[in-house]
Amino acid sequence: MTEALDALVAATEAALADSSLGDDRARAEAIVPALAALLEDPDPIPDAARQSLDGAAVGNLLHADPDGRFHILAVVFPEGTSSGVHHHGCWGVIGYLQGSDEETRYRCLADSGDKASLEESSRYHWRQGDITFLLPPDEGWHRVRSAGPGDGVSVHVLCRTPADHPHRFWDRQTDAVHPYPFFEVAPGRWRSEVAWDEPGTLP
Length: 203
What we know:
Number of helices: 2
Largest sheet: 7 strands, antiparallel
Strand order of the largest sheet: 7-4-9-2-1-13-12
Low-confidence stretches: none
Shape: globular
Order of helices and strands: HHEEEEEEEEEEEEE
Structural class: alpha+beta
Strand content: 35-45%
Radius of gyration: 16 Å
Number of strands: 13
């Protein structure tokens, strides 16, 4: 842990405990100052958290809340790699630390669980210091592509634990929706894998 990470953890804990913050957007906005400070810090995360997984995308775990309310990942996308179109089923706050990402957002026209109809609603080119939110149901579908130069590294404060985070993948060829769970592929290193043979929503 670093001082900036400690401050981000404390701010997230405070936001989740504050009963005056009436919804996920208010709680996400309360987390922003600490995340912005982390992005400006000269030593914000351990160097190892900036590393890809043998050239593939990975989420390096920075903190797991002992009560399972949230976790913090350093997500590394090597230049040119993409997440595919996917859905986060609960809140998240994302800050961009290194490189740049092209994020495409999608509007959901219909979602039956194992099928969805989506249309592109916006596209952003995020760079170091930028912060954005995931706020389903209206702001949960997106695709991220590392635009370079170099690896894209972003810090994600996400609801629940990595293993319990509700995550789904959209097949743009068939409109099928598949579970897209996180798996711990090495100690503290998490990847999403599409469950192609298990259409439908996560528990």
